[in-house]
Amino acid sequence: MEPLQPMRPVSVQQDERESAPSWKLWCAYVGLAALFLASMWIDGGYRWIVAAGIFIFAIGAALSIAAARRISRENAGRRIPWIGFPPVRPRKVDLLETVGASMTLTGALMAANNLSIPWPIFLPIIGFAFIAVTLSAQAWHNYRVHQDTSDR
């Protein structure tokens, strides 16, 4: 048997996924707080505010979906636990997730406030939507992981 050749050094790319810079986080937090306060103070059934609320809701929902897809992609081949954080979590704070959920809630509240939808009706619907979307994405990811591992 021949002796093994020495191994060549392998260069591994550095993980480029980092948390968002702190200035972006502070701008997002202050901007979202101002947006939320504006959504509660402006009342009167203005149509443009309802349209703005729906627009903000759509942007927030798109950001939340992008965050869920990114979490699923980063945890490919691993099940995401129902309680707790995913196994692979390269960021301390995920700006997409933070801003997306806040914008979704603020846009929905802004539209509901100006459409005069009662809070006891509106809040359970939004709460259910938040929980259902998050859990359905996680369930679908875990189902796909289970199917991939059971086929092997």
Q: What is the global morphology?
A: elongated
Annotation, overall tally of beta strands: 0
**Which structural class fits the helix and strand makeup?**
mainly alpha
- Main sheet properties: none
Instruction: Give the N-to-C terminal Cα separation.
Output: 34 Å
User: Cα-atom Rg, whole angstroms?
Assistant: 21 Å
Please, how many helices?
Answer: 4
β-strand percent reads: under 5%
Question: Can you give keywords for this protein?
Answer:
152 residues, mainly alpha, 0% strand, elongated
Report on the architecture of this protein.
This protein has 152 residues and is mainly α. The protein has helices at 22-41, 47-74, 95-115, 119-150. Helix 2 (47-74) runs antiparallel to helix 3. The longest helix has 32 residues, at 119-150. The mean pLDDT is 82.
Topology:
Layout: H1 22-41, H2 47-74, H3 95-115, H4 119-150
Give a nutshell description of this structure.
By secondary structure, the protein is mostly helical. It has helices at residues 22-41, 47-74, 95-115, 119-150.
